[in-house]
Sequence to fold (114 residues):
Amino acid sequence: MKLVIKEWEKYANVSFDYIDSQDALIRITFNSDDGSWSLIGRDIGMAKPPDPTMNLGWIDDIEDISEIDRGVILHEFGHALGLGHEHQSPSRRGVLTLKAARASKKSNVEAHCR
Ligand SMILES: [Zn+2]
Fold:
């Protein structure tokens, strides 16, 4: 999982240190009953330890990361770095147009965009 997270270091001016402490800025839980989510950017600093700032409930095995898991991890760390969803951009003015052929995983979109 650390190798996946490290991918962000190629694209953003960040580096990650991994500590096992409730003092960590990004605190990850793996609660399978709570989906996958992350607080966004500076909102992370407003969460009080030991409350999690990210949940990776869709990750089955942190030692054997599938391509789907990789996408989830990169996605949630994008949120941690301050990135929002495309459909939430104010420039969209509340309208999201999807190409049906590319929106075949409707259930995943609905599950994540809450
Ligand atoms: Zn998201």
